[in-house]
Every structure is written in C-alpha cells, then in structure tokens.
Amino acid sequence: MRRVAPWLKAINVVLAPTIANRRHKVDRIIDRAVRDAERRTDGTASGDEEFIDQMRFVLASFAEVEGLTPAGWKGTVDDIAGRLENRFRIRRLHARHPEIADEQVERPIVVVGMPRTGTTLAHHVLAQSADHRAPLMWELMHCDLGDIPAATRAEYVKRTEKVALGSVKASPMMPHIHKLGADKPEECVFVLPHGLIYVVRAHMPRYERWMLDRDPIGDYRYLKQALQVLQHGRERRRWVLKSPAHLWNLRTLLKVFPDAQIVWTHRDPATVMGSMCSLAETTMSVHVARPDLHRIGSTWLEMLATGVDRARDARRDLPDGAVVDVSYRHLTGEPERRFPELFERLGARWGTAERLNLERAQVRAGGGKGHVYDLGRYGLDSAAIERAFGDYGRFVDGLDRD
Q1: Count of CA atoms in the C-beta half-sphere (13 A) of 241
Q2: Tens digit of each residue's pLDDT (9 = 90 or more) over 260-301
Q3: Integer Rg of the chain from CA
Q4: Can you list the alpha helix ranges (DSSP code H) found in 129-239?
Q5: Are the C-beta atoms of 155 and 89 separated by less than 8 Å?
Q6: Residue 234: which region, alpha, beta or left (left: phi > 0; alpha: psi -120 to 50)?
Q7: 157 Cβ contact list (under 8 Å, min separation 6)
Q8: Domain 6-401 has CATH 3.40.50.300
Q9: pTM for this predicted structure
Q10: 293 neighbors 378 (Cβ within 8 angstroms)
Q11: Pick from 382, 392, 278, 268: which is nearest to 332 by CA?
Q12: Contact yes or no for 361/121 (Cβ under 8 A)
C-alpha cells in the first residue's frame, strides 16, 4: 500500500518552487495568523506573546527542513494557525467567564504508553462508559462552551473533518495506522502546543532538543484550561485523556492533575519500534520528499527510550495505585477478562453497556491490516533496542506472563 497518494506527489513536484523562500516568510505568516485568530475569536494576542513566539519557533524549525514538501509546509502552517485561534478563544472565554477557572477536573483517567501499545483501544473503551467522557477531535481543535449556536458547532465539525479527511487523502495508509474523525475521542496533542506531533513530521534537531529540555508546565495548565471550558455548563463526568506524549512529562501532568489515575499500556519494545518507525515514515513521506529511514530509526529509538526512562523515574515518587500497568497482549488477547479488571482497578463501573462498547471497539481495531514494518529498514536490530531500553523489555515480558 502506498504511503503517499500519487496525486499529492505530483502536486508537490509542481509546487516545490513556491516554498523555496519559506525561511524568510515565517514572521509574516505568524503575524498574519495572529491577526486572523484575533478576528475569528474576538480575542487578543496581548498576554500571549510567549505562546506566539513558541509557535514562531516551531515554524522556523520546520522551515529549516531539507526536502520539505509544499503539502507538508501548508499543513503545518494551517496547524499552527488553528492552534493560535484555539488559544485565543480559550483565553477569551476564561476572561469573560471567570467562574470557568473554578471547574474541578477530578480524578481524570490518563492513558499513556508508547505509540502502538494499545492506547487507542484502551482509550476508546474507557471513554465510551456512560460515567466517563473523552474530548472529541473537534472539541480539542475548537474548544468552546456547550451552548454555542448549532451553526457554530457545525462549522467546527466541518473544519475538523476536513483535517481528518485530508490525512486519508494524502496517505492511503493512515486509516490502517490511526484513523481520525471529527466526532471521535482523540489525543491531548490536539490541544497541547508542543510534543511529538511535530517530531513525527520531519527531523528538526533544534526543536527536538528544545522540546525535551523545556519545562512543559505551561502546556499542561493550558490543557486544564481547555478541559475546564469543555466541562463548563455540561454534565459532570470523569475525563478520559490519552497521549503517548504524556510519558515524557508524567511529573508535570501530575502537578496539574494530582489525583489523576494513569493507565500505562506496555508492549515489547522491538515490536513497538518497528511499528512506530513505519508510522513515522508514513507521516514524514507526506511532509518530506525523501525521508532518511535510518535517521527515523535512530531518532525514535532515542525518543521512545527517553520517554520510558522519564516515566519510570517519575512513578517511583507516586503512591500505590496511581499507575495501572496494562499489557498490550492482555488487552488484545483476552479483552473480555482484562478490561473488567482494568475498570475495577480504576474504580469504574463495568456492565452490559461497557461490554458492548468493547465489542464495537474490537471491530474498529480490526482495520489495522496492511501496516507492515521491518526493523532492518530503519537501521535497527533487537540488540540496539535492548541496549536503549535496558531492563524495560524484561518488565514487559513479566507483565505479559502475569
């Protein structure tokens, strides 16, 4: 199966000259995006100078990428513009309705784990419980109050669905890897301003280092503000959040959500690496003309090993029960037994409705055929992966046998 649609490759070739001077256009693009975001939200950039400068840094880092495609450039420009608009809207709502800040985000369930470890399956089953709620993709990209006009909501959904359909049109493989939908529960990365969502598009060493070294506390306070907006005036239910990116920032997440329960999914690192590299190759092929496959392997080996190390270090300071370890093999091999156990450990209700939700989620998960990967393609082997992850592979193996 093709990673990039033939029509997109042809368009990228034709339009390549249009992005030749992109490095010199970054400031103008960001300034225009700020003005458009202010107009769309009736908000103001004043007070968000740091956030804007960070978005400027993201785009400048992306502009440095060699072999960047016009489609990749436009997609990232549009992404950043949307994030600025969402940011200004959330700030405006908090300013106009100070009571939003009093909303308590109580005992959220946060699904974490390396990509390709069953996080999506766990997230969807947990989110579909009547007692729980997960933010939908359109809500994350266009945070707003529950009493917005129907026409406004429809416009948000339409704009989000355009993004979801665009990923499928650009890459026929994407539905087999991670299918997006405007009305489906999605990852926190659609609100969090920084993280793996940019790294998976292209190699940006300057941005990667900055992202790993910075203090992300502001990002997580912003995530809480977004959830408070989505919760305000609506029925109170327990939030179910998800993102592999939380592994890198578990301590920070728990500073902002101190009573969160973490569901950490685990899978053999060698299997994860092959699948993750294939995902990265697919995404990068849309954004970069000729991705360096061995560099994909080395980048993601370092990234994922760092994430696991940081999360394992962070959990040493956590009380018993704060982290629930879940085996991918258990979730997919014996879900009828393991999901009720998971719900019980989270203090959540398991009944007929939850069992039916699991059955539906299993049917949806069956669309993963066609996602084929090979470690050697990315310059990796099992020995290199074992060195990078240390004893984590043995921990997973023990969990699988439990």
Answers
A1: 28
A2: 999 999 999 999 999 999 999 999 999 999 999 999 999 999
A3: 21
A4: 137-141, 150-170, 174-177, 196-199, 205-213, 217-231
A5: no
A6: beta
A7: 138, 182, 183
A8: yes
A9: 0.95
A10: yes
A11: 268
A12: yes
